[in-house]
Design brief:
2 copies of one chain form a homodimer.
Chain A (H helix, E strand, L loop, with lengths): L2 H35 L7 H14 L6 H29 L1
Amino acid sequence: MEIADWRKKIDELDQTLLELLNKRANYSLEIGKIKKAAGMAVYDPKREEQIFLRLAQLNNGPMSDQAVRRLFERIIDESRHIEKEMMKAKGKKS
Amino acid sequence: MEIADWRKKIDELDQTLLELLNKRANYSLEIGKIKKAAGMAVYDPKREEQIFLRLAQLNNGPMSDQAVRRLFERIIDESRHIEKEMMKAKGKKS
């Protein structure tokens, strides 16, 4: 296989990744709504550690567990960011 | 649905994400091998811009195009990192 073939495979995979990352953000927003309604804190370091531990157990590489952790820290962080942006937008409307 | 239900959905999704991210890293390593054999530079900023542009076009949110770009910059960066680590490991063996 040539570079162009691998790139085509990466492009297809990226489209799926994008869809799943947006889906994950939506799930995360649903949890945020429930937490907000119940007056709970959005940030839950214990839950995040559980996520990283589980992913390390599932990880078969080639990414290292550290790389997986770094990536998912960023994924979770971006979800929190969306939540904040949405709350700000809501605040402006009302 | 309660928090626990959404978390279960996130856990399932994360397992798929992990598999796809590792698959992507493998594809990227294949391209790296071809480039190395041909004496080409690994870093290709033009290709990366194409990736970000395409993803922005495909993005339906809730993640912003900027958030998508940040995440994929990190994903690509981690792939490059693996490549470097593997070359280092090879160097130590020989």
